[in-house]
């Protein structure tokens, strides 16, 4: 599949240097190939061959919450505090 990175960059208002174009084309072609290998969905909205998911298991750990929180740069109400990533 041929992907026009210059056109995509133009539509998305991205500034991509000419030197980076071949790398982006290669990466996007690999992504498109990977997506084309995903299972097909029939008309009912279900995958014909569903993907197998791993089962989650709960494991006890030897550390208390307080011990783990000691490594956090900032704790608020017993939770890790992180910088805001979305502006309102």
Task: Tell me what the structure shows.
With 88 residues, the chain is mostly helical. The protein has a domain at 1-39: Histone, subunit A, CATH 1.10.20. The protein is 32% helix and 5% strand. The chain has helices at residues 5-11, 21-36, 65-69; strands at 75-76, 79-80. The protein has a two-stranded antiparallel sheet with strand order 1-2. Strand 1 (75-76) and strand 2 form a beta hairpin. The chain starts with a helix and ends in an 8-residue tail after the last strand. The model has no long low-confidence stretch (mean pLDDT 85).
Can you give me a brief rundown of this structure?
With 88 residues, the protein is mainly alpha-helical.
List the helices and strands and how they pair.
Elements: H1 5-11, H2 21-36, H3 65-69, E1 75-76, E2 79-80
Antiparallel strand pairs: 1-2
Provide keyphrases for this structure.
mainly alpha, 2 strands, two-stranded antiparallel ribbon, 32% helix, Histone, subunit A
Strand order of the largest sheet: 1-2
Averaged pLDDT:
85
Please, how many helices? 3
Query: At CATH's second level, what is the architecture of the domain at 1-39?
Result: Orthogonal Bundle
CATH C-level name of the domain at 1-39: Mainly Alpha
Helix-strand category: mainly alpha
Order of H and E elements: HHHEE
Major beta sheet, specifics? 2 strands, antiparallel
Q: How far apart lie the N and C ends?
A: 39 Å
Measured on Cα atoms, how large is the radius of gyration? 22 Å
Large-scale geometry? flat
**CATH fold description of the domain at 1-39:** Histone, subunit A
- Low-pLDDT runs of 5+ residues are none
Beta-strand proportion: under 5%
- According to DSSP, the number of beta strands is 2
The residue fraction in helices comes out at 25-40%
């Amino acid at each position: 599949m041929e992907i026009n990175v210059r056109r995509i960059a133009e539509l998305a208002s991205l500034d991509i240097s000419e030197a980076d174009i071949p790398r982006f084309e290669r990466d996007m072609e690999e992504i498109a190939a990977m997506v084309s290998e995903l299972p097909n969905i029939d008309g009912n909205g279900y995958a014909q061959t569903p993907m197998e998911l791993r089962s989650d298991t709960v494991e006890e750990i030897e550390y208390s919450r307080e011990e783990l929180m000691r490594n956090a740069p900032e704790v608020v109400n017993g939770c890790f505090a992180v910088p805001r990533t979305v502006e309102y």
